[in-house]
Design brief:
Elements lengths: L5 H27 L3 H10 L8 H19 L4 H17 L1 H5 L5 H25 L3 H42 L1
Length: 175
């Protein structure tokens, strides 16, 4: 990257911080996809076994389904292992725009497209798989909330690009 003025350095820092938070979210999401059965067992255990709420009933259903599936068909958990891996790989890709957001703005675009795609996938596939609407809306929120830091990063990257281009143009004219 060319030499930046103070305002551009602050903008670059904001981009790096918000993208680092996004990467942290992807990493946590990825790592938590490995021990699903234990996590859901713990989460269901936070509610009493006689809790009649819809959330508690759903968590017990998911817990029992995961336990039964992992007992009878453990190879199916391999799919969530790949889901976890995909989160980690996508997180690695975001190191490009953390280093140089202007040159790697395409990664931010990719992230925005992926976040937008979460909504129809959650609504359609969730319906086909019998996932309750409330749970599908929670899944949709990951796309919505994931897009917010990426929109900021994109906006700030465009501002940085304009500032960098103006600084480059100015220095080229002086030479």
């Amino acid at each position: 990257m060319p030499t930046l003025d103070a305002a551009s350095r602050r903008t670059l820092l904001r981009i790096r911080v918000i993208l680092a938070l996004f990467v942290a979210g992807l990493v946590v999401s990825g790592l938590t996809a490995f021990p699903l059965e234990a996590e859901v067992r713990w989460l269901a255990g936070m509610f009493g076994s006689d809790d009649p709420s819809a959330l508690a009933r759903w968590l017990r259903t998911v817990r029992d389904g995961l336990a039964d599936t992992n007992q009878r068909y453990p190879f199916l958990a391999y799919g969530t292992d790949w889901l976890a891996f995909a989160h980690l790989v996508i997180a690695v890709v975001f190191w490009g725009p953390i280093r140089d957001p202007v040159r790697n703005v395409w990664v931010i675009h990719f992230g925005l497209i992926a976040c937008a795609a979460v909504v129809p996938l959650a609504l359609v596939a969730g319906e086909v798989r019998g996932i309750p609407l409330g749970w599908r809306l929670i899944d949709c929120s990951f796309g919505l909330f994931g897009s917010l830091p990426l929109m900021l990063a994109w906006r700030w990257t465009k501002a940085l690009e304009r500032g960098t281009a103006a600084a480059s143009d100015g220095s080229a004219r002086r030479d």
